[in-house]
Structure formats: structure tokens, C-alpha cells
From TrEMBL, chain A:
InterPro entries in alphabetical order: Aldolase_TIM (IPR013785), EutB (IPR010628), EutB_dom_2_sf (IPR044939), EutB_N_sf (IPR044941)
Functional summary from the UniProt entry: Catalyzes the deamination of various vicinal amino-alcohols to oxo compounds. Allows this organism to utilize ethanolamine as the sole source of nitrogen and carbon in the presence of vitamin B12.
Cofactor note: Binds between the large and small subunits.
Pathway(s): Amine and polyamine degradation; ethanolamine degradation
Name assigned to this protein: Ethanolamine ammonia-lyase large subunit
Primary residence: other
Binding site for adenosylcob(III)alamin: P222, Q274, S323, M429
Keywords, ordered alphabetically: Bacterial microcompartment, Cobalamin, Cobalt, Lyase
Automatic annotation (TrEMBL), chain B:
HAMAP family the record matches: EutC
Name of encoding gene: eutC
Keyword Calcium: no
UniProt: adenosylcob(III)alamin binding residues: V184, E205
Organism: Salimicrobium album
Main location (coarse class): other
Entry-linked InterPro entries: EutC, EutC_C, EutC_N
Cell compartment(s), UniProt: Bacterial microcompartment
Function summary: Catalyzes the deamination of various vicinal amino-alcohols to oxo compounds. Allows this organism to utilize ethanolamine as the sole source of nitrogen and carbon in the presence of external vitamin B12.
PANTHER family in UniProt: ETHANOLAMINE AMMONIA-LYASE LIGHT CHAIN, ETHANOLAMINE AMMONIA-LYASE SMALL SUBUNIT
Signal peptide (UniProt feature, chain positions): none
Cofactor(s) named in the record: adenosylcob(III)alamin
Record's keyword annotation contains Lyase: yes
Family: Belongs to the EutC family.
Name recorded for this polypeptide: Ethanolamine ammonia-lyase small subunit
Length: 481, 273
């Protein structure tokens, strides 16, 4: 009997017309409530609706902001589906004193927003999925959306919704190679070593290249963050790329200020790395802000070794804010969307999502990790970003290789631009698992995807690949000796 | 040959053949070049010695070869078990530790709620109040943290070496405890309840695939309300393949002696040096 009771919802929302909402002046409480299956659910803010409408994630539970029951989650989803884009626009989850909020609002198109401000989030979902909506439509509408709207629509989408939505959007970028072309899939060769042994790093680079991994970037996480040490690895990787005439870019994933110092001292940097988060507080913990990123971009324009115009490699992931105690009561997924809204200002070459890297207190198991990866790919693409995914797990999560491979295949179907490539999937420096060189080659062959254009030619010249398939010569690092 | 003899022979044949089919396998992991027809096997062998990374392993199509794939899964299984298994009571008894618990009642709660592992449950707090020795110089805590394997395989030698070192220096030690499902910050509560000068936690580290036996030692001198992370001194990577446990125990005893003399730990202690 209970099942036949129609869902009834009542929505009360206080709206206001000026822009005072952005600065928290005379902050009014938004009252939202919904009757669902005979139960009344009350929400005190758009922020609360967003948090409770998300699929279950341990980080939101730990922060005490997730839904208390499955039906409360559905009440929040229903409420969210009836909110207009204007409701969300006027109620940013964090005020514009926060640099991330300010940049999201500064960079969006008011004109495009005005056209769609009356849509509900539920209508936005249907627009994304409609046969009549193509890549160009989504690229345009993206400019009228705040990150909270993008997070909101993803919360109303299932796994297939997210994959189909993501699949529609392709975003290209150029550093030395062009990433994101249809039919192509790139990889970062990630040859880390526990104590930065240059010969050890080089051996893993050769191994990766022999599997066709490394067209997105050859990117090394340093164990030693000292400028001289970082510069040494930059020189070593650059020289190797020059020697073998490899169409790619090098990068050492030290803190941005360290890379900038190395660059000023003449070290060859093709791509500049930085981790980003979705609140001012968390970015402070990362030691980064808009001023530093602007400076890094300008420095790359004048001193970097690459063509550009896309010089940045950003890493993001759900959970960084909650683990840094900088979440401000906002759910992990919405904070991740805000990170993308912030990142897009600096026109990155790669945005890599590493949800799953932190541990079970943010994403408990394989199911939560896979869900986060699908959300992030979709949300990143709806921000017009050249997204890649690192489906990762740590050893204290309830996830294993099977979960990781499922996440890899699903996001590859969704059209991720790139993945990582780690020897045997085991990062011996960072103590976590990521996609292996073998996985890289497998995803390409399984889906008929090719390496980036210039890099594919190089692989053919080296005798590593023919017609999109690895040759007998592939997988042997000693071909470089 | 009569029928009985024939039956006997057949039966004994069968018995033998059953025995012959018994198969015992000894799993071993060793680094070797498993690339089919490499240009230079010697070169691959050489670089395999330079990095613990899984290189020179070859492939089946685009996938890993069977043994390499299973090696990877064995290492992950060991790392997972290290987190999800409890430390055996026997190991705790052998070290003479009293068994206490944090507020985390399940592994799920422990992993998902950082706070639950940072506080003692009521019974454990009462036990410490009523039974533990008070006012000693050093209080030792063993915590499972994220690796029970680390506690089982690394802590026994480390603990013995540490306690012998402290004894030889005439440093007084309170009732040693093991706290199940506990994190580092629980040491602050234990220190308050036992009124010790200095507290040291030997705690299982987040396991990697390379080792799941690693232990860290966290030390703090007189923790209080105002204590911050920078007041804790940490020594990590204690295991057979890192800093050997016996060596680490003796070293920690020396460090504790100096901390007691200087009444400091963490950054303040580092500055003194």
C-alpha cells in the first residue's frame, strides 16, 4: 500500500534579487522541506540538500553531513531535482570571500546563465542526456553553470547517465602533443622510485614507453623535494626525451613553487604540476592560490620548453578537503566540482582525478571509488576540462584490482583523455595502486583507441606498435639500450 | 595368483597412485626477467636491481603473465590482511601487555571514523584508572594502527629491545598496554590517566605492497590540552627491510633518555639537538 502513495513535495524557498548572496550579507536561511512517503524532511540550506543528495561516501558520513537514511537521501535528491539553477546560483555553498567561489563566479558567462536560470536541476539532467543536445551545446552551456549546479546534476545521475553524458564531451588541449582528440587515449608514464635513483627512474620510463605509455607526459613524483634534486630529474627526463626524439612533455610533480624555482634556475620544464582543492582553506594547506598559479603560468610562457598554450597539469580528488579539515560543511563531490571551476581559469593540459588515493575514511570501498570516478569524469568534462582519471586504491580500503579495473573500463567508455601508467600497477614510492602499463595497452586495444597522433608515429618508428597493436618487440625495456 | 592376491595388488596400486597424485606447491617470489626474447636480458637484470618497481616482467598479450599477476595479488592480500586482521591475543600475552580497546567497536567504524580510534572505551579507561601503575617516567603503548602484521612480526623484537634499553638506564616504566583499533592520538588520554612523564606508541603503519610489517614510533613528552602535532617525535619505517627492530629499540631508548633530561619532544626537542 505504501508503495502506491504518490510522492508529494512542498518546496519553500526564499529568493532574493541582488548579489548580496555572494558576500554573505544579511545571510538569510533558506528553508526547504519535502514530504516523501508520509515523512517530512527539512533542509536548512542548498548546501545541506546537496550534501544529503549525494550517494553514500564515508568522508561525508565522517564530516556528519551525509544523509541519515536512504529515504532522506531520496528526499534530498527529489528536492534537488526541483531546485532551479537560479536557486543554486544565489546560494553558493561558500561565500565569495573564498577565492574558489570568487573565481567560479568571475569566470562564468552571465548571459548564458540568464538563458537557463529558470531550469530545474532535473531539467538540466534531461538536457544533458537528450538526443538533441550535442558536444557543442554542452560546451556552451558549461559557461553558464556554477560548479554547484554541475555537482547537483551529477547527483541525479546513475552510472550509465554519467558515462553517456561524459561520452558526449571531448576537450582538446595542446602542450607539445595534442590531447583529447576523438579515438585517442593517452597515458602518463609514472616511473617513480622510492629514493629518486635516476637510473631506476630511467628504467621504469623505458619499460613504460615500450608498452606505449607516456604520450600525455613523463611525470615523476619526487621523493626529495629539494630544488637541486627536482632540477636533476627534470634534466634527466628532458635529455632522454631529446635523445630519443619522443613527442611528449616532461614534468616533476614537486610543489609548484619548487618547480618555478627550478625553472628560474634554467631547468627544462614542459608541463607544470600542482594539486588543487575546492576551498580556500584546503588550498592554503596545499600552499597555493590564484597569485601563485598566475605567476607559474606566466613563467611557463616565457621560460618553459613546450609550445603550449596549455602548460598545467592539475591533480584533484574527492576527500582532500575533509582530510585537511578544510571542507566547511560542504560534501566531497561538490568540493571536487568547485576544484574544477577553479582549475579551468588556468587552461590546463591535463586534469587528473585521483579519488581513492586517501583511504577508507573518505571513500570506503570499491563501490564508492568507482562512483566517485564516474562523477568526477562527468563533472570535469562539464567544466570543459581535459579530464583524465586515476582509478586508485590504497591497501586499507576495501577495494582490489578488480574494482580498479572496472573503474578504468567504465571511465574509458566515458571518454577519459588519459590514465596513469605505473610499472605493474604498484607505485613503490607513494604506496598505492594505479593503472599499470599493461592496463594502458589493454584499454586502448579493448576499445580500439590509438595513442596521440605524433606519439603513435614515434611508436611505429620504434617498432613498438603496428596498426594500433603492440608488436612482439613491445614490453622490452632493453630496446632502448 | 589367486583372486585375493590380485585384489590386494590392485588396491595397493591404487593407494600408490593416490599418493603419487598428491601435490604440494611451495609458493616463492623472486625477481627475474620474464620478458620473452628480450634484446638484452643482462641489461634488464641489472636495472631490476636498481628499483623495487615491477619492471622487466613481460606480458601475455597486453596483460600481465600469470605468475606476475599472482605475485601482485599476493602482495596486496598480505597488505590487506595486515589491516583487516586483528592481532592474535597470544602475541599480546607473550609480550606481557594488558589488552585495552578504543571506542571503535568494528573495523568499519575504526577506519571510517578517525575520532573513534583516538579515545579509550569506558572499560579500558576504568581499568587504567584502577589497575595501571601511576607516576612512572615512561608509558609504553602498542597500537595495531593500520597493520596487525607489523605488530605481530616487528613489535616483539622492538618492544624487548626498547624495554631492556630503558631498564639499563634505570628509567621507570608503567604498565605496558596494547590498545586494539587505536590511533596515535589515544596516547594523550593514556598519558593523562597514568600520569606518566613521557608516552611512546609503537603503531602499525599503512601498508604498501613492498612491506606490510612496518612500525612507527610516536613519542610525546607530557601531552596536554595545548599539544599540537609538532610536539610529537616520529620514527617510521621500522621493519626488517628498513630500520631493523632491535636496532630501533636501542636507539629509541637513547632518545627517550635525552627527552626526559631535556623535558621536551617534537620540534622543541629537535631544536635542542
Amino acid at each position: 500500500m505504501q508503495n502506491s502513495v504518490p510522492v508529494a513535495a512542498f518546496l519553500f524557498l526564499l529568493r532574493w534579487t541582488d548579489q548580496s548572496f555572494l558576500h554573505g550579507e544579511g545571510k538569510k536561511t533558506v528553508k526547504l522541506s519535502c514530504t516523501l512517503r508520509g515523512e517530512v524532511y527539512r533542509f536548512h540550506s542548498v548546501k545541506e540538500v546537496l550534501a544529503k543528495a549525494g550517494e553514500e561516501k564515508s568522508g561525508d558520513v565522517m564530516a556528519g553531513i551525509g544523509a541519515g537514511s536512504s529515504l532522506e537521501r531520496m528526499a534530498a535528491k527529489y528536492t534537488l531535482s526541483e531546485l532551479t539553477l537560479k536557486d543554486i546560483y544565489e546560494n553558493p555553498v561558500i561565500s565569495a570571500e573564498d577565492e574558489v567561489t570568487r573565481i567560479i563566479y568571475e569566470d562564468m558567462s552571465r548571459t548564458i546563465y540568464e538563458e537557463i536560470s529558470g531550469w530545474t536541476v532535473g531539467e538540466l539532467r534531461e538536457y544533458v542526456l537528450s538526443h538533441d543536445t550535442g558536444a557543442e551545446d554542452l560546451k556552451r552551456i558549461s559557461r553558464g553553470l556554477t560548479s554547484e549546479m554541475i555537482s547537483g546534476v551529477a547527483k541525479l545521475m546513475s552510472s550509465i547517465d554519467l558515462v553517456l553524458g561524459a561520452q558526449k564531451m571531448r576537450h582538446e588541449a595542446h602542450c607539445n602533443t595534442t590531447i583529447g582528440e576523438p579515438g585517442r587515449l593517452a597515458f602518463r608514464c609514472q616511473p617513480n622510485h622510492p629514493v629518486d635513483n635516476p637510473e631506476g627512474i630511467l628504467a621504469s620510463i623505458k619499460e613504460g614507453l615500450s608498452y606505449g605509455s607516456g604520450d600525455a607526459v613523463i611525470g615523476i613524483n619526487p621523493n626529495n623535494e629539494a630544488v637541486e634534486s627536482v632540477a636533476k630529474i627534470l634534466h634527466m627526463s628532458h635529455d632522454f626525451i631529446q635523445k630519443w626524439k619522443i613527442p611528449t612533455q616532461n614534468c616533476v610533480l614537486a610543489h609548484i613553487t619548487t618547480q618555478m624555482e627550478a625553472l628560474r634556475q634554467g631547468a627544462p620544464v614542459a608541463l607544470m604540476f600542482q594539486s588543487l582543492a575546492g576551498t580556500n582553506a584546503a588550498n592554503d594547506e596545499f600552499g597555493v592560490n590564484a597569485g601563485i598559479l598566475d605567476e607559474g603560468y606566466e613563467l611557463m610562457k616565457s621560460k618553459g620548453t613546450s609550445a603550449g598554450p596549455n602548460f598545467f597539469y592539475f591533480e584533484t580528488g574527492q576527500g582532500s578537503e575533509v582530510s585537511l579539515d578544510g571542507h566547511e560543511g560542504v560534501d566531497m563531490q561538490t568540493l571536487e566540482a568547485r576544484t574544477y571551476g577553479y582549475a579551468r581559469r588556468w587552461k590546463p593540459f591535463m586534469v587528473n582525478n585521483v579519488s581513492g588515493f586517501i583511504g577508507p575514511e573518505t571513500l570506503f570501498d570499491g563501490k564508492q571509488m568507482i562512483r566517485a570516478d564516474l562523477e568526477d569524469l562527468f563533472m570535469g568534462k562539464l567544466h570543459n576540462l581535459p579530464m583524465g582519471i586515476a582509478p586508485t586504491y590504497t591497501n586499507h580500503m576495501q577495494a582490489d584490482q578488480n574494482d580498479q579495473e572496472i573503474a578504468g573500463m567504465l571511465t574509458a567508455v566515458g571518454g577519459a583523455n588519459f590514465y596513469m601508467g605505473v610499472p605493474g600497477g604498484d607505485d613503490v614510492m607513494l604506496s598505492y595502486q594505479d593503472t599499470s602499463y599493461h592496463d594502458d595497452a589493454s584499454l586502448r586495444e579493448m576499445l580500439g583507441l590509438r595513442p596521440l597522433k605524433e606519439f603513435e608515429k614515434w611508436l611505429q618508428k620504434m617498432g613498438i606498435m603496428e596498426k594500433g597493436r603492440l608488436t612482439n618487440r613491445a614490453g622490452d625495456l632493453s630496446i632502448f639500450d | 595368483m589367486n583372486i585375493e592376491q590380485i585384489v590386494e595388488e590392485v588396491l595397493s596400486e591404487m593407494g600408490r597412485s593416490e599418493k603419487a597424485e598428491e601435490k604440494h606447491l611451495q609458493y616463492e617470489q623472486k625477481k627475474e626477467v620474464t620478458v620473452a626474447d628480450p634484446v638484452s636480458k643482462e641489461n634488464i637484470e641489472y636495472v631490476q636491481r636498481l628499483t623495487p618497481a615491477r619492471i622487466g616482467i613481460g606480458r601475455a598479450g597486453t596483460r600481465m603473465r600469470t605468475k606476475n599477476y599472482l605475485d601482485f595479488r599476493v602482495d596486496h592480500a598480505a597488505a590487506q590482511d595486515a589491516v583487516f586482521k586483528d592481532v592474535e591475543d597470544e602475541v599480546i600475552e607473550q609480550m606481557g601487555l594488558s589488552l585495552l580497546k578504543s571506542r571503535a567497536v568494528s573495523m568499519q567504524e575504526y577506519l571510517m571514523n578517525l575520532d573513534a580510534g583516538r579515545k579509550l572505551d569506558d572499560a579500558s579507561a576504568d581499568w587504567l584508572k584502577n589497575h595501571a601503575e601511576k607516576g612512572k617516567q615512561v608509558q609504553i603503548i602498542v597500537s595495531d594502527g593500520l597493520s596487525s602484521t607489523g605488530v605481530e612480526e616487528t613489535v616483539p623484537d622492538l618492544y624487548l629491545s626498547l624495554t631492556q634499553g630503558l631498564e639499563s638506564k634505570n628509567i621507570t616504566v608503567g604498565t605496558p598496554v596494547f590498545i586494539r583499533k587505536s590511533r596515535v592520538w589515544i596516547q594523550d588520554e593514556v598519558a593523562a590517566l597514568t600520569d606518566c612523564e613521557l608516552v611512546i606508541s609503537l603503531i602499525g603503519e599503512r601498508p604498501g605492497l613492498a612491506t606490510s610489517k612496518s612500525i612507527s614510533a610516536y613519542i610525546i613528552y607530557k601531552p596536554g590540552e595545548e599539544s599540537v602535532e609538532a610536539d610529537r617525535t616520529v620514527f617510521s619505517n621500522i621493519h626488517e627491510g628498513g630500520v631493523p627492530p632491535v636496532e630501533a629499540g636501542a636507539y629509541l631508548a637513547d632518545v627517550i633518555e635525552r627527552m626526559l633530561e631535556n623535558k621536551a619532544s617534537g620540534v622543541a626537542f629537535a631544536r635542542l639537538k
